[in-house]
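Deliverable D2.4 — example input (C-alpha cells):
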C-alpha cells in the first residue's frame, strides 16, 4: 500500500502536482463545526440527551473528517466522540477548576513565549487546532494576544537568543502544525541561528486527527534543521492510531524523528486497564514511546472527565504487571509553579 506521502506527492492525471498544504487545509475547511451535523453523520438523535450546541463565545465544535470516520456510528458513548462532544456538564462551575489550571499566565517570558522549566522555552505558535477536545487545558487561553506575523515573534526570539540556558525550543499552541510549511520554515530558520539551541520539540495532535498534515515538505523541514527533532503526539485511545494516522506516524518514524505520546486520563474514554494497555502497545508497535499519562488539568468545563488520582495509580500498577517497562507511561500532573512535571 502506498504511504501517505507518496499519495499526496503523486502527480494528478493532468500532470500537475498536488500542493500538500492545500490538501490538509481543504480537509480543515471541511471539518464539522456544528452539533446537528455531527449527530447526523453518526446516526445519533438530534435531541441526544445531555449535549448542547455551543453559541458564539463558547468553545466551539471542531471535528475533522478523518477523526470522525474512526468513531462508531450510533454509539453516544464512543470514546472518540466523547472527547469532542459538548456536554451540559461543561457549563457547571466546579470548585477548583480554573481558566488557567497550569499557570501559563505567570510563565510569560515574552509575547508568545512561556518559560516554565529550566533549559526549555515554549512558543504558543498558533491559536487554533484541528480538533477541539472538550478537556483542553488551554480552552480559555487568550490566543488573540499572541504573535502571528514573524516580526511579532522578534521579542520571543530575542529572549531565546540571549538566554544561553535554553537548549530546547518547544512549539505548542493551539497546534503548531496549523502553521503552513512556509511560516514554519521561517521560525525554524531563526532557531537554527541560535547556537545554544540543540533540540526542537513539536507538540501536535494533527498527525492523529488530521494525518494529511504529515507531508513530504513537513518531514523535510523537521529533518533538515540542525536541531534534533522530538515529536510529541497526543493520543488517548488505541482506535485513534489506525489507518491514515498510523501511516502518517510511520512516515515520521521512518524519517528518524523521535516520537513520544502524551495521553490524558479521561473518565469514560480510557479509564480502564484494557484500553490503556492496548493504547500503549499500539504506540510501541508504531514506534511511538508511551511517554506520559497526564492527570487531567483542572480547567473550567472539564470536571466531568476527571478520574481520581488513586484510580490512576491503580491503573499504572496494573499496566506494570501486564506490559514491559518501556511500554508503561509515567503518570504525572502539571502543578503551577513547579519546575517539572510531578510524578503521581
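Example output (designed residues):
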Amino acid at each position: 500500500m502506498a504511504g501517505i506521502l507518496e499519495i499526496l506527492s503523486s502527480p494528478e492525471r493532468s500532470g500537475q502536482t498536488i500542493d500538500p498544504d492545500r490538501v490538509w487545509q481543504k480537509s480543515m475547511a471541511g471539518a464539522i463545526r456544528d452539533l446537528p451535523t455531527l449527530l447526523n453523520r453518526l446516526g445519533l438523535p438530534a435531541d441526544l440527551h445531555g449535549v448542547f450546541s455551543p453559541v458564539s463565545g463558547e468553545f466551539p465544535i471542531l471535528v475533522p473528517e478523518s477523526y470522525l470516520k474512526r468513531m462508531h456510528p450510533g454509539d453516544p458513548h464512543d470514546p472518540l466522540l466523547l472527547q469532542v462532544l459538548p456536554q451540559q456538564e461543561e457549563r457547571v462551575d466546579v470548585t477548583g477548576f480554573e481558566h488557567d489550571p497550569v499557570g501559563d499566565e505567570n510563565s510569560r517570558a515574552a509575547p508568545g513565549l512561556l518559560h516554565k522549566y529550566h533549559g526549555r522555552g515554549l512558543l504558543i505558535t498558533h491559536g487554533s487546532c484541528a480538533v477541539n477536545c472538550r478537556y483542553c487545558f488551554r480552552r480559555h487561553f487568550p490566543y488573540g494576544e499572541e504573535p502571528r506575523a514573524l516580526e511579532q515573534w522578534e521579542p520571543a526570539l530575542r529572549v531565546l537568543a540571549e538566554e544561553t540556558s535554553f537548549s530546547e525550543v518547544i512549539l505548542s499552541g493551539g497546534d503548531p502544525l496549523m502553521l503552513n510549511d512556509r511560516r514554519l520554515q521561517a521560525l525554524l530558520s531563526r532557531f537554527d541561528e541560535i547556537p545554544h539551541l540543540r533540540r526542537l520539540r513539536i507538540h501536535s495532535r494533527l498527525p492523529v486527527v488530521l494525518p494529511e498534515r504529515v507531508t513530504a515538505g513537513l518531514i523535510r523541514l523537521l529533518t533538515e534543521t540542525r536541531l534534533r527533532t522530538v515529536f510529541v503526539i497526543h493520543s488517548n485511545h488505541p482506535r485513534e492510531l489506525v489507518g491514515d494516522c498510523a501511516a502518517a506516524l510511520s512516515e515520521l518514524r521512518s524519517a528518524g524523528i523521535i516520537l513520544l505520546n502524551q495521553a490524558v486520563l479521561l473518565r469514560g474514554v480510557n479509564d480502564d486497564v484494557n484500553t490503556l494497555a492496548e493504547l500503549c502497545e499500539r504506540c510501541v508497535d508504531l514506534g511511538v514511546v508511551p511517554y506520559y499519562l497526564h492527570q487531567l488539568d483542572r480547567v473550567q468545563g472539564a470536571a466531568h472527565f476527571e478520574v481520581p488520582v488513586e484510580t490512576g495509580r491503580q491503573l499504572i500498577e496494573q499496566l506494570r504487571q501486564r506490559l514491559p517497562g518501556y511500554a508503561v507511561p509515567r503518570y504525572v500532573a502539571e502543578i503551577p509553579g513547579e519546575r517539572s512535571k510531578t510524578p503521581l
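Residues 57 and 215 are 33 Å apart (CA to CA).
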